[in-house]
Design brief:
Blueprint (H helix, E strand, L loop, with lengths): L17 H4 L41 H65 L32
């Protein structure tokens, strides 16, 4: 029989960990981190921190001046954008006016050419005599020729 096999009524109990039995040694010991498991670079709560030379080279500025600078910068950006938009609108207006002027000039030129052609046509029409329309001609009757039917083709049943 298997030695590990037990019945359903069996309840096993686990042994407690060392830190659960000896409270002075616990996780971190009675007075903090256990010295034999302490990281060499870790500092305790009572040790002073050493300052490093990695300080920022920028001088510290009060919050008020940064806020004013930020506000003025955003106002400057808004003014610049509105100026650029106004310039674009002005350029678009000028280009539309130039196109309209060119279109008007072309239309005036075409009207002038059309007026000259109409004046020439009037002169030509006035110079030519008016002809009286002649009565429409009646077609003369044509004699009907003897129409014979074309010969019928011979169709064979052997096709």
């Amino acid at each position: 029989m298997d030695k590990a096999a037990v019945g359903y009524d069996h309840q096993s109990s686990l042994s407690k960990h060392e830190s659960q039995t000896d409270y002075s040694a616990g996780f971190g010991g009675k007075f903090g981190v256990q010295s034999d498991r302490k990281d060499k670079s870790a500092l305790g709560w009572n040790e002073p921190q050493k300052e490093t030379g990695n300080r920022s080279s920028k001088p510290e500025m009060p919050d008020r001046t940064r806020a004013k600078d930020l506000k003025s910068r955003f106002e400057g950006l808004a003014m610049k954008q509105s100026d650029e938009a106004a310039q674009l609108r002005e350029q678009a207006r000028k280009s539309r006016q130039a196109a309209d002027n060119a279109q008007k000039a072309e239309q005036e030129r075409q009207n002038k050419v059309r007026a000259e052609q109409e004046a020439r046509n009037r002169v030509v029409v006035e110079a030519t005599p008016v002809r009286q329309p002649s009565p429409p001609r009646q077609p003369s009757p044509q004699p009907v020729a003897n129409i014979t039917a074309p010969p019928t083709p011979i169709v064979s049943n052997y096709l």
